[in-house]
Design goal:
single chain; 29 residues; mainly alpha; 2 helices; 0% strand; DHS-like_NAD/FAD-binding_dom; Deoxyhypusine_synthase_sf
């Protein structure tokens, strides 16, 4: 497993949340 730092999570979500097909987008919802 990857251990995420808060900044990496935010950066990742910032990218993924723009893509509705991304599982992270839906997971965030």
């Amino acid at each position: 497993n990857i251990i995420w730092s808060p900044s990496k999570i935010i950066a990742r979500l910032g990218q993924e949340i723009n893509d509705e097909s991304s599982y992270l987008y839906w997971a965030y919802k």
